[in-house]
Amino acid sequence: MMSAETSTEAAEPSFSVPVVAHLTVHVTASGTGKKKSTKKETKTKEFTHTFSATKSNYMALLSATLEKHHIGNKLQVTEH
């Protein structure tokens, strides 16, 4: 006999694919003047995610992206 949780997962279509996330960050460059300049750096990370059509799954994708870029402790994903 299957549990309700297992049958719900089977009824919900999902697929697993690799994700390549590019994150552009602005880094303060060290300078000698009073005005500090910034430069752009692009960081690329790759991970696998199982997609399904739920809000919680989308939030999990966003959280995984932040965690892979090591900024999950600075930013937080919410429903709003």
Q: What does the model show?
A:
A two-stranded antiparallel ribbon has the order 1-2. It has 80 residues and is an alpha+beta fold. It is built from 2 helices and 2 strands, in the order αββα. A hairpin with a 7-residue loop joins strand 1 and strand 2. The longest helix is centred in the last third of the chain and has 14 residues, at 55-68. The chain has one domain (14-29, 36-80). It has helices at 4-11, 55-68; strands spanning 14-29, 37-52.
What are the salient characteristics of this protein?
elongated; two-stranded antiparallel ribbon; alpha+beta; 80 residues
**Cα-atom Rg, whole angstroms?**
19 Å
Distance between the termini: 38 Å
Order of helices and strands: HEEH
SSE class = alpha+beta
Describe what is shown at a glance.
The chain has 80 residues and is an alpha+beta fold.
What are the SSEs and their pairings?
Elements: H1 4-11, E1 14-29, E2 37-52, H2 55-68
Antiparallel strand pairs: 1-2
